[in-house]
Structure formats: structure tokens, C-alpha cells
Amino acid sequence: MNSKVLYIRVNKNCNAQCLMCDFWKNPKMEISEDQFRNVLSQFESIELVRFTGGEPLLCDRLPQYIRMCHELGIKTSVITNGLLLEDKLSSLVDNGLNQIIISVDGPLPGVHDRIRGTDGLLKKIENSLSLINRCYPDLHTRVNTVVSHNNISQLSLLVNWLKQNRVEQWSIIPIKMDGYIWKDKIGLNEFRQYYEEFQRAILQTEVKLLGYSRKWAGSIDGFWNGQYTIHSQNKCNLVKYMSFYDPFSNHIFPCNCVPHRSRAFADVQEERDWYYENGYMYCKGCEPLNAYCSDFPEVVENDVLDI
């Protein structure tokens, strides 16, 4: 297979009780070393392996897997809630980690820790970023923010938080973009106030906005009305560049969003071909960065592989 980016789910359990997720209810389950070696051997042109979960830092063999990729010349990144990051950071970097992606949903503990269901989490993230900036300046940093009515009022403050903590990249991920998540909770005037504050703040920072985050930063009405797609506008080009491996079903999916769908296919290529032709009609909950890279595949190099 010729994907450039391979997501690997290394475990299914988590140590945070986020409002939007129930992985914390799962027992400890991890990918085996044999499974990891086998899936890597099936790809000829992988440039980046992105480790996901669950919470990947709970995976005992994660540093070993990072080292295996590093020795093959493959870049690596880890998506984490940050709870264990400060303690694990040295081992991750020593084994060759290129990028850390941290979920941050607000600049204040009262917002972020409540959404993530974990007291003290934001402080641990700040400690980890401080350690990275002092001791591991070559480790690239990105923040993912899931935006809803719970934190829209904090976006402008979060921009300043990202600047203060010297985060390089930012991906804004609406939990829903079909309107009701905003309109049932806040009015347009209140939303406009929050969003105008966000627009002013984003002009004063050097953080790199990824994917459709750039469009949202420039259009209040587009954000409010959900005009900026949560699915690709045409054929899904992303499946040409990305794959997702779930060891617990032992299945390779065309992208990291497809495991949440319900269709069944005879083989990987049939599934990839189907989503290429039909994904833009079927996938109504696509990750915004994925949808953007599908519509503008030339940005895969800049938005995904630029680490």
C-alpha cells in the first residue's frame, strides 16, 4: 500500500473522562509487537506514523514503536491528552519522536479540565510544554481544540495561551457544525462577540492554523452557519494519502475517521475505492483537517507532513 500517513491505534483505554468520549470505560488493551511489525511491513511509502488511542501514553511499548519507526526513517507523532506527558517525554524524545499533539480545549482549568473530566490536567500540559521549550526545542508541538458552546467564549484567550506556551500549530475541530450546537445554546449576537474577539487575537499570533481552521478564522457567518464543510466537497482524495490501523479488529481503514462508520467491505482496496468515490456524500462527520486535505490535496505536505 502507498499511503503517506499511517494512523495506528496502539491501545483502547484512556485516563481522562472527556465529555465527548467514553474510551475511559475500556479495559487495558494494547497492540502487540507482532501486529505492529506486520502492519509496518505492508506499507512501502509511509512518511509519518501517528500514534493514537485511547491514550497512547498508556501503551507500555510506545517508545519501542517510535524507535522502530525512527530506524526506518519514518517520522512519528503522538496524539495525547497530556496527563502523563511530562513523565514520559524524555523516553519519547530519546527514541526519536518528531511531534506531540495535545488536546487543549480552553486556557483556564475551569474550562479545559471540566471538558476533559480531569482535575489538574491543564497545569500538567503547561508543565510539559515548558519542559519541551526548555529542553527539547526540536520536538514539534501542535494543539487540537474541540470547539463547542462549552468553550467558544474562551477562543481568544486560548490564542494568547498558545502564544505564551510557544505552540507551533493549531487545529480547530468543531464538535458539530450543523448549527444546533451553537443556536440552541447561544444567540448570534453573543456568538459574534466571541468570534470577533477570536479574529482579533489570531492576527496577533504566529501559531499556524491548519486546514479549515484558516477559513473559520476569517468568517463569522460561515462558522455560525456551518458553511465550512465537515466533509470533502468532492471525491475523497485523502484516502490516497492516509490509512488507519485498528489492531483490535485487525483492519486497515482508508482514513482515521472511517472506523466510526458502519459499512463492511471485502478488502482494503475495495473500501478505499468506495470512500474515494462516495465519502463526500457519506461522511458527514469528517475531521476538518481531513476534509480540507481532501479538497486541497496539495496541502498534505504543509498541514500534515510538515513536522
What is this structure's SSE topology?
Blueprint: E1 5-9, H1 33-41, E2 48-52, H2 62-71, E3 75-80, H3 85-94, E4 99-103, H4 109-116, H5 121-135, E5 140-147, H6 155-164, E6 169-174, H7 180-183, H8 188-202, E7 208-209, H9 213-216, H10 220-225, E8 242-246, E9 251-253, H11 268-282, H12 288-295, H13 300-304
Parallel strand pairs: 1-2, 1-8, 2-3, 3-4, 4-5, 5-6, 6-7
Antiparallel strand pairs: 8-9
Helix pairs in contact: 6-8
Task: Give a brief description.
With 307 residues, the chain is of the alpha/beta class.
What does this structure look like?
The protein has 307 residues and is an alpha/beta fold. The chain has one domain: TIM Barrel, CATH 3.20.20. It has 13 helices and nine strands. It has helices spanning 33-41, 62-71, 85-94, 109-116, 121-135, 155-164, 180-183, 188-202, 213-216, 220-225, 268-282, 288-295, 300-304, and strands at residues 5-9, 48-52, 75-80, 99-103, 140-147, 169-174, 208-209, 242-246, 251-253. Helix 6 packs parallel to helix 8. The chain is globular.
Let me know the average pLDDT: 86
Q: Which regions have little confidence, pLDDT < 50, spanning 5+ residues?
A: none
- Counting DSSP E segments of at least 2 residues, the number of strands comes to 9
Instruction: Please compute the radius of gyration using only Cα atoms.
Output: 19 Å
Superfamily at the CATH H level? Aldolase class I
Number of helices: 13
CATH T-level topology = TIM Barrel
